Amino acid sequence: MLRRAIESVLNQTYQDFQICIYDNNSGDETAAVVAEFAKEDPRIKYYCHSENIGSTKNYLYAMNEVSTPIFSFLADDDLILPNFYSVAMAGFDREPRALYSATSFLSLSLDGKKVYSILFPSKVCYPPDGLFEFLESRTQPHLHAILMKKEILSECAAFNPYLWADLDFLYRVAAAHPVVLSSEECFLSIVHDLDKNRKIIIDHAWLEQETIAASLKPLLSDESYQRLENIFDKKTRSVIYLLAIELIYANDLEGAKVGADRLISKYGMYRQAFTLKTLVYIFSVFPFILSFLRSVRYLRLFPASKEKHPILSYSQYMNIYRNKKY
Known about the structure:
Elements (H helix, E strand, L loop, with lengths): L1 H9 L8 E5 L6 H11 L3 E5 L6 H10 L5 E2 L7 E2 L3 H11 L5 E10 L4 E5 L4 E3 L3 H8 L9 E4 L2 H4 L9 H12 L2 E13 L2 H23 L5 H28 L3 H15 L2 H16 L1 H12 L15 H9 L4
Parallel strand pairs: 1-2, 5-9
Antiparallel strand pairs: 3-8, 4-9, 5-6, 5-8, 7-9
Helix pairs in contact: 5-7, 8-9, 8-10, 9-10, 9-11, 10-11, 11-12
């Protein structure tokens, strides 16, 4: 998939860039793939760590190596649409003081089906409005769907060493500095294991929200911080419940029980937990009912989402790569 990611950058309408690839001692064909591209394009640079230092430390290393006024990140399994840099750069023209310019984006499963989308309004957000735009509208920026100014590294503390370090970082920037949002979807994120991701969120959501809230507290007034706590509390309850429902539909009944237990132990949500455990019991005793409901769901007999996107032709863009082997 690295080839696809590199080509998505090379295919940008905005061509004034360099590509720096930081290999976390992957031990695969990364070096050979990069060498192949670098032969044709001197803008491509490569560095390989002598050992695997972990994802967060690799990001931090890359940040410390930034030598350009503006930079971005991209994982080897994601890709950017051809207008990503042009759209994000235009955001800095709208507000030169902004520290990052964020585009809307789409998440896809490995088989190309839409998982979810984040669609921002096109606007400039001044602190702390950018933070609350993300929290209250149930949207959130993606680290790989934004351009950042190098000043962000001196103005804001780097990643904290926990699960949602990137989100915490982007929240802290929006709480203290102007940021620009674009409604144009310019980034495609590939989600690998949906059920695993749901379990991780159920297990860690409440703790991560508390940790992020603590890091944001010094940047907010007492009134804004109370507003933040109320949002986080309501949001985490809802997320855990809805993900537990998703786990039931995925036939992961044990994972759903963990979600029910979390709602009781952390939030005292006995009614919602009882609903989840009742469903788990019914479907464990009568599994054919769950099988039927899942088949109904997958046959789309339930109403399909009417959500529309500015870029509905992303599949055409994917066709550029469809016949290539990665």
